[in-house]
Amino acid sequence: MSTPNLYLPLIDLSSTDRASVAQSIRQACMDHGFFYVINHGIDDVTVSSLFSESKKFFDLPLSEKMKLERSKDLRGYTPPYAETLDPSSKFKGDLKESFDIGPSNDSLNQWPSKESLPAWRVTLESYREKIMNVGFRLISLIALALNLDENYFTKIGALDSIMGFLRLLHYPGEIPESDKGKYGTSAHSDFVMITLLVSDGVPGLQICREKDRSPQLWEDVHHVEGALIVNIGDMMERWTNCTFRSTLHRVVAVGQDRYSAAFFLDPNYECVVECLETCCSETAPPRFTPIKCGDYLKERIRLAYSQ
């Protein structure tokens, strides 16, 4: 059951009224867990170059891509069917293929050769730096939205030496008959603080705002040209005691190739995620036990790849 073209709340980062922007973000995170961001500072040329280089890589033969297969350090290429984000899915393996890039300064990233893709690394590193800066701006606004000091997450060390993975994604347009009914990405919520997504405009992204509703209602997210899509992740939901929702989402096959890039802003792995004082009370006690970010992520990643 699907409702076409859901228009998410629109957040304008060029506004000088930070209190008003923070309040709009608060409402969006409570109602949807998703929102658009415009005037974020990443120009169209940068995004166009990102998708051009992404397509060049995914167009390579599978044998070439597998030379950069995803490592234990979570960098590199993941082929179709290798990941199942919805453990309850009757289908084992999502249709998408992806490529993960971490921080540039830790030497763990894998890169295509300069001979085959000469501009690939510089393009991806440049975009990652820009999208991470947008993420930091949003985190300070989210702190304000939670009635905290805007530098709260910096002060507790959440943003120290973050991993901040950039994931390139390709969803195939043509799929064999045996794969009909499978999802590009099966239903899941993101593990991190927030995710910042840019796509090429091809539809397919759906969200389910009420994850416990039966039957679930899935809504198609409308594409807004030039906007980023931002969603709250599970760790931010834990921090806020479910004040902000980490919303289920998935990507359905639409008969067209679809390209997107997701930046996952996760806290420092030693940071403890525990209920914020502004999000609990005697009548609303903490729902989750405190946990280190790194421990939480390891378990979620293990479950995603165990099948």
From TrEMBL:
Keywords: Iron, Metal-binding, Oxidoreductase. GO terms for molecular function: dioxygenase activity; metal ion binding. The keyword Metal-binding applies. It holds the Pfam family 2OG-FeII_Oxy. The keyword Glycoprotein does not apply. It comes from the Eukaryota. Residues 161-267 form the Fe2OG dioxygenase domain. InterPro entries: DIOX_N (IPR026992), IPNS-like_FE2OG_OXY (IPR044861), IPNS-like_sf (IPR027443), Oxoglu/Fe-dep_dioxygenase_dom (IPR005123). Belongs to the iron/ascorbate-dependent oxidoreductase family. This is 2-oxoglutarate (2OG) and Fe(II)-dependent oxygenase superfamily protein. It comes from Rhynchospora pubera.
